[in-house]
Amino acid sequence: MAGIRSRAFLTEPAQEPTFKFISDLAKELSSGRVELPSFPDAAARVQQVLSDPAVTSERIARVIGADAGLAGRLLTMSNSALLHRGDTPVTDLKVAVTRIGHDNIRAAALAYASAQLQRAPELAHIRPQLEACWREGIRVASLAHSLAKETRCVRTDEAMLAGLLHNIGKLYIIARAPKNPESAPALDPAVVESWHPNIGKALAQNWRLPEEIASAIAGQLESDRSHEGPPDLLDLLIVATQVAAKMAARAPDDAALAQLPAAVTLGLAAPAFKRIALDAHAELQKLQAALG
Prior knowledge:
With about 290 residues, the chain is mainly alpha-helical. Helices cover about 65% and strands about 0% of the residues.
């Protein structure tokens, strides 16, 4: 795997401990090592088995069925308002796997893993930060899903998965941080913000996720990105994260959002953002119910 590079930032004295800690994590990931405390083995196996283009639904169902919690999470998602069509509940894992598709299976596995992380006793000291990361992921996922419906440039399930995973690098950094703040300085937020996209890309590559998703995670902060050719997943994720940030700051500015190069590439005019915000609110509720 290629080495990980961060975006440029100042390495002031207060930032140096965080810089060293995260750069060490980057070296681990570049060598193929992923050590995420309390991350369920079953969730990691799902990510790996789905990287095989010839994998069968039966094999996927066997991997998922080995963990009752993960199996329950997948069935919940397949019967949710987000995905279920028809009156008959899905009770068979193989049927669920066939119906909801690989990206939604990945999302269900990620939701299950996140829940396990938040409940882990050894991570109780950072539970609020882990929960905040998950809420942010859900918010960006709902916006990405709505943007995909509006622009039709990528599949909605692919967009949702990229949104859920956009801050997985931040979660990884927080979960791996030294537990005792007395012996290790607190993480510098500016350094975490600078590094987390490429840490997230490395995680996605280690889990053998599609390269489009890994590249979108890595480039999400490139708000000035412009390019030739049709819009892509990275354009969509850039806009989704920018909208989420403005909504979190209670400072939505549709005109300013429409001027983002990625928004221009996506063909989004200012009025579209009100439709997207309303749709994303509805999608958020469905997504929360689907992922638990």
